[in-house]
């Protein structure tokens, strides 16, 4: 298609993971297994939270929202990654590429706002426990959840609109396994410095603002925990924050490395390695981090399994009668 003497691209080619096509076929099974495990793990958390009335409180409300986000976050990338393992020509249409980039960053940005809201919940529970139920009301929890989505939307919408308006006239090979902004900008046949600066400033504001809020919350939390006289009390208080703090450290560490840099076209190969951690491995780890270190969730899961076993046994007995 011709326009102003330039060929406008209608599709991109994804370079994918490094290595031979035979090697990439061997990656299909482990990546598929991790994707299924991620979906099942997060759906299980949501199921347990909905089913067990003891978990109907702000902490698990935010955890359920976070698990819901993780399901869609990996789904924006993993099916296409898996399909590309099995084909030689890894093509993606222009609109599909922009859509994938938009939802990937929308859900990612929303997660950071939600992590900040979760830190507020933990701060209130530990530093102001007597007024916890009054402060963290259902209305406030709902507002924080909706605000996280709106914050993520407004963070990425301007960048996405500007990205759509960039001319892409060749080459069309994206040096990544999904439509990331960094390699896309390197393919534009126009001056992208303004958009690079907007991406850099937007990413920095999102990450450092939410991270600063979370860090300040945890400074107060740690200060309060250290004032608890008994060691068992301190351990119990810290255990309620350990899972969230672990997830925060992994999320912020990987994303800050990938996007808060002065040049948009630097370290693309290194970014791909870090992106695997951020888009495939971290979403898989999160359900295990929250369940293995959470006594309430483990008890609710055990109760659900016990009830299921009892139900199956009773049905067998009725059938035998």
UniProtKB/TrEMBL annotation:
Organism: Eublepharis macularius
Key word Membrane present: yes
GO cellular component terms, semicolon-separated: plasma membrane
UniProt-annotated location(s): Cell membrane
Membrane topology (UniProt): Multi-pass membrane protein
Family: Belongs to the G-protein coupled receptor 1 family.
An MF annotation (GO) of this entry: olfactory receptor activity
Xref: InterPro entries: GPCR_Rhodpsn, GPCR_Rhodpsn_7TM, Olfact_rcpt, Olfact_rcpt_6C-like
Transmembrane segments: 27-50, 62-82, 102-120, 140-162, 204-226, 238-260, 272-292
Transmembrane helix is among the record's keywords: yes
Protein name per Swiss-Prot or TrEMBL: Olfactory receptor
Primary localisation category: membrane
Keywords, comma-separated and alphabetical: Cell membrane, G-protein coupled receptor, Membrane, Olfaction, Receptor, Sensory transduction, Transducer, Transmembrane, Transmembrane helix
Domain G-protein coupled receptors family 1 profile residues, every copy: 41-290
């Amino acid at each position: 298609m011709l326009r102003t003497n330039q060929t406008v691209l209608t599709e991109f080619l994804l370079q994918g993971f490094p290595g031979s096509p035979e090697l990439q076929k061997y990656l299909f099974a482990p990546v598929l297994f991790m994707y299924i495990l991620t979906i099942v793990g997060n759906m299980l958390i949501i199921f347990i939270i909905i089913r067990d009335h003891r978990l109907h409180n702000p902490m698990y409300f935010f955890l359920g929202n976070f698990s819901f986000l993780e399901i869609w976050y990996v789904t924006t990338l993993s099916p296409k990654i898996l399909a590309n393992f099995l084909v030689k020509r890894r093509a993606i249409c222009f609109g599909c590429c922009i859509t994938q980039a938009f939802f990937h960053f929308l859900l990612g940005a929303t997660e950071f706002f939600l992590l900040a809201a979760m830190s507020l919940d933990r701060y209130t529970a530990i530093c102001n426990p007597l007024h916890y139920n009054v402060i963290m009301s259902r209305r406030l929890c709902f507002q924080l959840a909706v605000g996280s989505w709106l914050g993520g939307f407004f963070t990425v919408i301007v960048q996405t609109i500007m990205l759509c308006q960039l001319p892409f006239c060749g080459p069309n090979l994206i040096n990544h396994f999904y439509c990331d902004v960094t390699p896309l900008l390197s393919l534009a046949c126009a001056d992208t410095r303004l958009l690079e600066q907007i991406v850099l400033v937007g990413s920095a504001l999102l990450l450092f603002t939410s991270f600063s809020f979370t860090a300040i919350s945890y400074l107060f939390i740690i200060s309060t925990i250290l004032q608890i006289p008994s060691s068992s009390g301190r351990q119990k208080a810290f255990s309620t924050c350990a899972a969230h703090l672990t997830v925060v450290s992994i999320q912020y560490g990987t994303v800050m490395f990938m996007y808060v840099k002065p040049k948009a076209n630097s370290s693309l190969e290194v970014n791909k390695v870090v992106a695997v951690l951020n888009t495939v491995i971290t979403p898989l780890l999160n359900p295990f981090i929250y369940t293995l270190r959470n006594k309430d969730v483990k008890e609710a899961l055990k109760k659900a399994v016990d009830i299921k076993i009892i139900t199956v046994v009773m049905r067998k007995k009725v059938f035998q009668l």
